[in-house]
Amino acid sequence: MTRLKLVGSLLLFSGFISFGQSAIDDLKKEYDSLTKNTLYGNNPDAGKYYDIRGFNMYCETYGSGEPLLIIHGNGASINSMVKQIPFFSEKYKVIVADSRNHGKFIDQRDSLTYKMMADDYAALLSQMKIDSAYVLGWSDGGINGLLLAIRHP
After folding, report:
1. Structural domain boundaries in the chain
2. What angle do CA 130, 133, 137 make, to 5 degrees?
3. Structure confidence by residue, pLDDT tens digits, 4-37
4. CATH T-level assignment (fold) for domain 47-151
5. Residues 36-78 pLDDT 10s
């Protein structure tokens, strides 16, 4: 009898794994369909350059609601958030920008610091007339988000 319970449990567990993978596949298809027709990071309908601290910072906005600033990681650009943008834009006004020396934001200076990038994001929000926003950062974007909160609460 113990053996039958174990086999039944294994069958139930393997069925759960199959169902879980099926649900994951369905979600992936849904997000792929949302993102395949949008060139995040190069979308003329959503993108704009802002004069930030003497430089042109490229930014795109999507959706409506409370502002959510999404900050990409080191070596990346707006396009690295291709899955997050459509998800969060269903509820928030998503703001994504290329950090200094990333994507379309080119700065020819010889130095780059997290503080500089956090200050850039503060200036961007200020220029967009946004005095408060949620911030979501990935990797170095998380560091920029923390410094943004510390330096510009």
Report:
1. 1-37, 47-151
2. 130
3. 333 333 334 444 444 567 766 766 666 555 555 5
4. Rossmann fold (3.40.50)
5. 557 888 888 999 999 988 888 999 999 999 999 999 988 777 8
